[in-house]
């Protein structure tokens, strides 16, 4: 972000120029007031760490905002997406949040609507502004809200740019809290609540009790002095359960009345209703009947846990990144790009124990040579990580003195100031260790130790699942590679190019296949197909189908008979997977093709003059459905210099795209691209299809077979 410049005392501020920070505060407070949002925050981007840091917040306390103060730029969450893509993000409800940003919905399970707008100046990304409303907000921002949000966005961006240009940028080193408006309630009016037959108390934005009437102390069983200034879930043992603090957070974030019931031992059931506003929460307390079969409680407490909701949501946010990881590479990516910035460590390494040795799965932030030193070490060697693997016990070192005394030969321990070693325990054994390194001494609170240990458990499960996936995937891909043709035969008068691109998600393996069969000097057979599914079974069936087609084609069967015989084979195999297939007999002497298809997409023909045609071929049933299915053959002219394109649906299909329109687009692209060299044309068509994929939604395999007849003369 740059270094502070010459503005006298302002240069010593953790915010750079205090005047800039104060102006940003005023703009944010005014925006939230004018749009009716109840929570607002400004995030700044730290480019070197690829993380967004909350620098100003209004509507919640520092304690409540804590879990959301650091967001990895790569994380699939609204704030990060707005900055990455440079566009506003609007989410109208928690249901929409769960669909678009499931990780955020899990970490923020409240009835809210939210808006995020990026802060930019030209090509410079500064950060983002977040606003939160109750979930009762209209489905869209009003014109007035949108205009005010956009105005504030430009004002804050301009302030940040001017400060940076002046050599005193606003630095995201601490969090500034914009306080609530002055309360309108005066203590003398509290006497009115003494006449109520029910308990009344008030909480501030930190969750601390600021007022109780006499009935409230009677129902809660504690005196004024025992409760004032405390958080109820900390001062009342029977409310010391995360579910009750979560009710407070739900009310605070949603700004909607939130009820729950709780048991004050031994048998006093109390009903609580929380009423929030910008200054805090008023609580109504009344006796109630115990929950019975005919009436469910407002909230049913889970088994008591000593972790607070903020820590739970923080851990949940991080662990979700790991549950989305598929292979070991994905786990390494999630750990280093999404988890490391959020837990604010300077060094992180994931080590696995494989065949008696250490393997470095991921490493970032440690001094050069550290990963190479540990990779391949025998498990019998000395080291804190090896000890954690051997004992299965986590270890935390607030400074490096003890480590340097115990392992003086390991230089790493001299180069970082504090360490945490989290054993990765899964399936009854320790499979590795996560090493965290800090560049400053770091006291580990009991709560942080518990959270990091739990995170280590989630990482262990993700790593074990990823290694199993990679093993299965390697076997599957090996099977598929063995079944697809390694080289296509050379046929006089025919130029051929083929491409295969695996799916972007899942097993990265499917049943798409292609083949080119030399029949004699002037004829060949081309086949392409797609077995339903993306697994080893699909790949195995694909091999059987390809072998059957090859056998019948080599025996001289016509296209319709090749498909009919292959169909009967699939019926005999009793497979529950269906297969599409297109078979083309190429007669190069007479410049024609005879084509039959079983539920496959139509081929596209590029004529010598450059125009393209989607061939109208009679389509039969998919293979493997009906034993007596019949297939018809179409004769197609194949003039010299023409290009025939056979493909599977992965080349043209995309979410939300009409299939016929997609095939027409392929035909147009084939007409526009130069047909020579044919291999470059195949590469271009597959590259265009790959760009259209949406990795978050997965994708299908792509198989493409291009054949160009030689020009006469």
- End-to-end Cα distance, whole Å, is 67 Å
Mean pLDDT: 83
- Helix percent band: 25-40%
The tally of strands reads 28
Give unreliable regions as ranges: 1-12, 293-308, 693-698
Strand content: 25-35%
Instruction: Work out the helix count.
Output: 21
Outline of the structure:
With 713 residues, the protein is α+β, with helices and mostly antiparallel strands. Helices cover 35% and strands 26% of the residues. Helix 11 packs antiparallel against helix 12 (328-343), helix 11 (309-323) packs parallel to helix 17 (446-483) and helix 17 packs parallel to helix 18 (536-554).
List the keywords.
single chain, 713 residues, 21 helices, disordered N terminus
Please tell me about this protein's structure:
The chain is an alpha+beta fold. 35% of the residues lie in helices and 26% in strands. It contains 21 helices and 28 strands. Strands 1, 2, 3, 4, 5, 6 and 7 form a seven-stranded mixed sheet that branches. Strands 19, 20, 21, 22, 25 and 26 form a six-stranded mixed sheet that branches. Helix 1 packs antiparallel against helix 6 (143-165), helix 12 (328-343) runs antiparallel to helix 17 and helix 17 (446-483) packs parallel to helix 18 (536-554). The protein is elongated, with a radius of gyration of 33 Å.
